[in-house]
């Protein structure tokens, strides 16, 4: 008895430290997180390359991002159910394998349709890596060391926005676009072997029923609706059946999902949580912000590539200030979120984003890089002070048994917002560029007229085209001015959406709210929230 009494307190002083066994498990999860997070940012600099490689519009190639994020949103709620049903180790290795196989298939794509399909497969694996990885780490270390675990996972989350565009640009410049996907093959193989050796054996247990019907309504509904929106620039009118038919069917499926989701005991998304005012305000704020910021974020590197004629590596390096800004403020914002109500901090972070964003609404073919890189840095500072505090505020007011469902809900809204933003901003840009004047007598191999903006953009990447199409130099200048104006108009739409974010942000809590988690039983805190990425 005496030995027990003496031994019991021993772990307390070091209980928040991560021992070697936990760090070994964390290494597997960090490898998966690096692949998943880098892949989102790596592809952002490749979109103009996909345009020229597959002879597709910007709205079409943006589906390599839209399809990926929709796939992420599909599997996030599936992850928790499947982890209980099949075991975390087995499921994590399946996710790694899916992501790696999807990556290799992406590198073999011969058409843009194939690439989009393989990106969806990749997203099905990538969407499970973070939530399952977080579950594995929480079980290995215990909920009381969540803060330390988040610090470990924070490394790839912070480095992804900086390293992704640079890595993607470098691989495209020195090799080809195929290598932005093939790079995942050795990492995935190492991660699979590491996972087999390091992760504890599975102990599957009975799980809650899964809402497959809800999943079959929400995911196809969103995909069909956004496909209809994306078809608008090529169709030219909402009256075209290729536009209105998928939009109508998709909208009907989403509405049916919302009505249905209040009936099951364990719905795909627990919309009942929106009765919580704090969660609703935080979710709306984040959703509007993500549409604007993530949608426009895809266009920043495209402006550097298509209007300024930079290499993909240079475009990636020019994007780095944004990631550096976020890396500076994210840890500070995380600390402040526990001490200062976010209603007093998030509006200032949003103001920084607005300040930085405005410069991009004024872009022309010669806008100062000092101004643009400075603006990206300021936007990064604002972004680092926005996302995590809003998520923390939303979850803090939930009871322990609601946290997993609440974080799943907010994370899926984030992925949907990113999908909507990518689709809408790419459609606006494509529509604007389509308004450029066609060059008389000049057509592409398929017989389609080439516009002034189209030729100017192509000539920025391949100057030899001006020899094939002898034209007045002023035509190229007009084309570049029109292209820059098209980007500026698209940025104005995103800018207006960021301004709209101030409306729900004004209702964020300005006084400290007591966390319901403090009132709950300790045993209920084992539910693992989903990490936003």
Mind explaining what this structure looks like?
InterPro entries: EmrB-like, MFS, MFS_dom, MFS_trans_sf. It comes from Micromonospora sicca. It is a multi-pass membrane protein. Keywords: Cell membrane, Membrane, Transmembrane, Transmembrane helix, Transport. It is found in: Cell membrane. The protein has 24 helices and two strands. The chain starts with a helix and ends in a 28-residue tail after the last helix. By secondary structure, it is mostly helical. It has a two-stranded antiparallel sheet with strand order 1-2. A hairpin with a 5-residue loop joins β1 and β2. The protein is globular, with a radius of gyration of 24 Å. The N terminus and C terminus are likely disordered.
What order do the helices and strands come in, and which of them pair?
Layout: H1 2-7, H2 20-42, H3 47-54, H4 58-61, H5 63-86, H6 88-107, H7 112-141, H8 146-174, H9 179-182, H10 184-198, H11 212-230, H12 232-235, H13 241-260, H14 277-297, H15 299-306, H16 312-337, H17 346-358, H18 369-384, H19 387-396, H20 400-433, E1 438-443, E2 449-451, H21 452-461, H22 465-468, H23 473-500, H24 502-505
Antiparallel strand pairs: 1-2
Helix pairs in contact: 2-7, 2-8, 2-10, 5-6, 5-7, 5-11, 5-20, 6-7, 6-10, 8-16, 11-13, 11-20, 14-19, 14-20, 14-23, 15-16, 16-18, 16-19, 17-18, 17-23, 19-20, 20-23, 21-23
């Amino acid at each position: 008895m005496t030995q027990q009494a003496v031994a019991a307190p021993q772990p307390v002083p070091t209980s928040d430290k991560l021992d070697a066994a936990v760090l070994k498990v964390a290494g597997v999860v960090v490898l998966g997180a690096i692949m998943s997070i880098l892949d989102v940012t790596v592809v952002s600099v490749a979109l103009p390359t996909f345009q020229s490689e597959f002879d597709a519009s910007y709205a079409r190639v943006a589906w390599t991002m839209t399809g990926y994020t929709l796939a992420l949103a599909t599997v996030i709620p599936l992850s928790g159910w499947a982890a209980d049903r099949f075991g975390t180790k087995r499921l994590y290795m399946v996710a790694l394998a899916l992501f790696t196989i999807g990556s290799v298939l992406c590198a073999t794509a011969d058409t843009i349709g194939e690439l989009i399909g393989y990106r969806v497969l990749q997203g099905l694996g990538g969407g499970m890596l973070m939530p399952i990885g977080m579950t594995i780490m929480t079980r290995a270390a215990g909920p009381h060391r969540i803060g330390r675990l988040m610090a470990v996972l924070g490394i790839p989350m912070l480095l992804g926005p900086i390293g992704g565009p640079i890595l993607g640009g470098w691989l495209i410049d020195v090799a080809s676009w195929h290598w932005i996907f093939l790079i995942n093959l050795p990492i995935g193989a190492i991660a699979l072997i590491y996972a087999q050796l390091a992760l504890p054996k599975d102990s599957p247990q009975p799980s809650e029923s899964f809402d497959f019907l809800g999943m079959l309504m929400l995911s196809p509904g969103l995909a069909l609706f956004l496909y209809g929106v994306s078809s608008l620039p090529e169709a030219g009118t909402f009256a075209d059946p290729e536009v209105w038919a998928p939009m109508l069917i998709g909208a009907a499926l989403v509405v049916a999902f919302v009505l249905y989701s209040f009936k099951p005991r364990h719905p795909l998304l627990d919309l009942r949580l929106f009765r919580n005012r704090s969660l609703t305000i935080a979710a709306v704020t984040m959703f509007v912000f993500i549409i604007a910021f993530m949608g426009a974020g895809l266009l920043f590197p495209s402006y550097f590539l298509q209007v300024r004629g930079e290499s993909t590596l240079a475009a990636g390096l020019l994007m780095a200030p944004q990631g550096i800004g976020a890396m500076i403020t994210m840890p500070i914002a995380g600390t402040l979120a526990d001490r200062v109500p976010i209603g007093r901090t998030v509006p200032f972070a949003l103001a920084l984003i607005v300040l930085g964003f405005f410069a991009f609404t004024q872009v022309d073919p010669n806008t100062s890089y000092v101004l643009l890189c400075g603006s990206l840095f300021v936007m990064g500072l604002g972004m680092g002070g926005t996302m995590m505090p809003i998520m923390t505020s939303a979850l803090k007011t939930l009871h322990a048994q609601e946290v997993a469902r609440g974080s799943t809900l907010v994370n899926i809204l984030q992925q949907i917002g990113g999908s909507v933003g990518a689709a809408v901003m790419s459609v606006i840009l494509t529509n604007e560029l389509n308004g450029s004047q066609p060059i008389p007598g000049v057509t592409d191999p398929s017989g389609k007229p080439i516009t002034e903006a189209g030729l100017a953009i192509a000539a920025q990447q391949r100057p030899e085209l001006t020899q094939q199409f002898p034209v007045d130099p002023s035509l190229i200048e007009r084309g570049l001015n029109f292209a820059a104006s098209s980007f500026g108009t698209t940025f104005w739409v995103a800018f207006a959406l960021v301004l709209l974010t101030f409306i729900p942000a004004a209702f964020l809590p300005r006084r400290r709210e007591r966390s319901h988690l403090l009132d709950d039983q300790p045993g209920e805190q084992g539910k693992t929230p989903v990490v936003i990425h």
